[in-house]
Amino acid sequence: MRVLLVDDEEELAVTLAERLTIRGFSVDWAVTAESALKLFRDKKYDVAVLDVKLPGLSGVTLKEHMAEIDPELKFIFMTGHGSQEDFEAGSAAAGESNYLWKPVDIDAFAEKINLVAEEID
Predict the structure, then answer these.
(1) Per-residue pLDDT reduced to its tens digit, 55-82
(2) Where are the domains of the chain?
């Protein structure tokens, strides 16, 4: 399963990508919406994991651009900012069940990706 992970905290993005790769996922990562869009235009992904707050384009705006290109793509949002505004933005964009709070438990994260991916089949 191909996953695109977008988080402006590079160390976190690298760590999550490595841990998901160990669990059998094929993961690309980016730290900005713009770099994510470049990757996205070159490859097909099953799931995109987006941080709500990114520099430049927000994760919610990035989702809108990606969904226009690939309406089949599934999304998971995550945030380390526990404000009600962030929660509402991510929940509205991804569906409340596809929303994670940082720090992310890697096993729960992998399970969430698998559950979202099941919606594809």
Answers:
(1) 888 888 999 999 999 999 999 988 876 5
(2) 2-118
Residue 51, φ and ψ in degrees, nearest 5: -70, 140
Number of continuous H segments (helices) and E segments (strands) in the chain: 5, 5
> Other CB atoms closer than 10 Å to residue 104's CB: what's the count?
20
- What ranges in 3-97 are assigned the alpha helix state H? 10-22, 33-42, 59-69, 84-94
- CATH fold of 2-118: Rossmann fold (3.40.50)
pTM reported for the whole predicted model = 0.85
Q: Which of 20, 87, 84 is nearest to 59 (CA)?
A: 87
Task: For tokens 């994670």, name the residue.
Answer: 100
Give the largest Cα separation in the chain, rounded. Answer: 35
Residue with tokens 């949002």: 77
Q: Is the dihedral of CA 97, 50, 114, 101 positive or negative?
A: negative
Separation of alpha carbons 54 and 33, rounded Å:
7
